[in-house]
Amino acid sequence: MQNLILNQRTLPAIGMGTWHMGDDFKRRQTELTALRSGLDSGAAVIDTAEMYGEGNSERLVGEALQNFPREKVYLISKVYPWNASLTELPKSLDQSLERLETDYLDLYLLHWRGTIPLAETVAAMEAAKQAGKIKAWGVSNFDTDDMEELWQVPGGQNCAANQVLYNLGERGIEFDLLPWLRKQNVPLIAYSPVAQGDSLGNQFTQQPQLQKIAEQHQASIFQILLAWVIRDGTTLAIPQSSNEMHVKANLAAGAVKLAAAELAILDELFPKPTQKQPLAML
User: Fold this and answer.
1) Is residue 75 a contact partner of residue 101, using CB atoms and an 8 Å limit?
2) Most buried residue among 97, 139, 209, 268 by CB atoms closer than 10 A?
3) What's the sign of the alpha-carbon dihedral 235, 201, 143, 90?
4) What's the alpha-carbon Rg for the chain, to the nearest Å?
5) Average pLDDT over residues 205-232
6) Which pLDDT band, with edges at 50, 70 and 90, does 205 fall under?
7) pLDDT in tens, 96-136
8) How much of the chain exceeds pLDDT 70, in percent?
9) How many CB atoms lie within 10 A of CB 179?
10) What pLDDT is attached to residue 10?
11) Cβ-contact 253, 282 below 8 angstroms
């Protein structure tokens, strides 16, 4: 099983995302079952945000965590950029904690850059850490220049992770951002690691060579996509699924180890970037 170290804690490299979950009451029981099954199957990480359903996702996660040992879960949430000030961040954080029915987050992320100065956001994050309400903080949707700017801010180098869009069909960060993160020992959290299936136009399921690799590992194409994302040991993938069986299949992808020849085939099918690309976002 592939692991990574995030804020001095060893975690399975595949967790659970919750974007679009918690909004439909008719699906609530199915979603709760999926999350609880994932926890029971060894998924330590759950990622959510105040933006997701304006708190509905956090409420769902809070309910899913009832009767589950809190110390076994690595809980991530995110703050809106306009709430990331010294006065507003504590309020947003308290509201997230209340919805999640917990007294601390393992990781709190700035969801994307806004107009509030990074120095102020970092100060607010550090204050929350000192108060014991978060164990660590990080950022999301930060490109290389954003990270470099953050590194010049007092306390900015305490950033524990950067969460960005990354999958086999969206490799732009490999040109400069990913090497920068590796050099600074900042873990990457990959959202949409299977690119929402074929819905983003990648046509993964139509690739015979990808299908062949999957068959060789007795895995699905989507398990291969996840195994590819976490291949370097410094990336956490957070696929979202409301389906119990899909969640278990996602977690099982952590045991798939791709050979160098297979990685070369995937590089040929979906080439690495050869120049700087704008940071992709969903």
Assistant:
1) no
2) 139
3) negative
4) 18
5) 95
6) confident
7) 999 999 999 999 999 999 999 999 999 999 999 999 999 99
8) 98
9) 12
10) 96
11) no
Please give the average per-residue pLDDT across 239-267, as a whole number.
96
* pTM to 2 decimal places: 0.96
Instruction: Look at residue 202 and tell me whether its pLDDT is greater than 80.
Output: no
Rounded CA gap, 190 and 174, in Å? 12
Confidence of residue 226 (pLDDT cuts 50, 70, 90): very high
State the chain's mean pLDDT as an integer: 95
In the block, tokens 């895995």 appear at: 219
3-class secondary structure per residue, the chain? CCEEEECCEEEECECEECCCCCCCHHHHHHHHHHHHHHHHCCCCEEECCCCHHHHHHHHHHHHHCCCCCHHHCEEEEEECHHHCCCCCHHHHHHHHHHHHCCCCECEEEECCCCCCCHHHHHHHHHHHHHCCCECCEEEECCCHHHHHHHHCCCCHHHCCCEEEECECCECHHHCCHHHHHHHCCCCEEEECCCCCCCCCCCCHHHCHHHHHHHHHCCCCHHHHHHHHHCCCCCEEECCECCCHHHHHHHHHHHHCCCCHHHHHHHHHHCCCCCCCCCCCCC
What angle in degrees, to the nearest 10, is found between the helix axes of 208-216 and 260-269?
160
Cβ–Cβ under 8 Å, residues 53 and 83? no
Beta carbons within 10 angstroms of residue 205's beta carbon: 13
State the virtual CA torsion across 97, 103, 105, 108 in degrees, nearest 10: 50
For the cut 90, the answer to whether the pLDDT of residue 197 exceeds it is no
Tokens of 10: 């060893």
Query: Which two tokens mark 4?
Result: 């990574």
